[in-house]
Amino acid sequence: MYLIVGLGNPGDEYRNNRHNVGFMAIDAIASEYGFPPFRQKYKGHFADGKIDGERVLLLKPQTFMNKSGASVGAVANFYKIEPKNIIVFYDELDLTPGKVRVKIGGGNGGHNGLRSIDPVIGKEYQRVRIGIGHPGSKEQVTRHVLGNFAKSDSDWLEPLLDSLAQNTDLLLKGQSAQFMNKIALAVFGEPKEKKKKAKMSVLNNAPKQMSNKTASPSPTKASNQMADMLKKIFKK
């Protein structure tokens, strides 16, 4: 059994904040894997479902960021989930927007959510840091994290959330490097050198690659739900 937590602040006034990207990640995962509607439980919004055959609990603490540990601890204690099976998604100032890094343990980096969680369950849980960029000066940090994503942010946020949700199973398997690679490709694309080599390969093998028909996969229900969610995030 796994517990996946997304950090943020409750209430409509915070819904589209950069600080709430953890909540957005959980919503994307719930949509991708068809979780039942969230219920108000364990001082948070809670859902119980499965990912790749594994039972997974999703949680969005509704205690405000600096008291997230109360909600996370309530679920972890009730279901007796060890820290190694807990994954926490949250915003990271010191990463370029769209970059994702995964690690186990370490300091809280000044993040109030982690500062609240660590004393409750320990530090040996999996942390997924989602880059939101730094505003440039310490005085602007609060305004930045509690500010809404700009419309232009949808260029990287939409593919990030899509890929994050589609590849969550890799985190459950302990394949964090593959998880980060998948997201990097979805958000930033392949390095120019790789693209060039791929293009040359296609040209050199053109007769074998030619086809009169090109399959075009229809969008899934989960993708449509994701699109609807992102429209709400970026509408004025």
List keywords for this structure.
alpha/beta; Rossmann fold
Topology overview:
Layout: E1 2-6, H1 21-32, E2 39-41, E3 44-51, E4 54-61, H2 68-79, E5 86-92, E6 100-104, H3 112-121, E7 126-131, H4 141-145, H5 154-166, H6 168-172, H7 176-188, H8 192-204, H9 206-209, H10 221-234
Helix pairs in contact: 1-5, 2-3, 5-7, 5-10
Structure description:
The longest helix is centred in the C-terminal third of the chain and has 14 residues, at 221-234. This protein has a single domain (2-208), classed as Peptidyl-tRNA hydrolase (Rossmann fold, 3-Layer(aba) Sandwich). Helices cover 43% and strands 18% of the residues. Helix 1 (21-32) crosses helix 5. It has 236 residues and is α/β, with parallel strands linked by helices. The model is unreliable at 208-217 (pLDDT under 50). It is built from 10 helices and 7 strands.
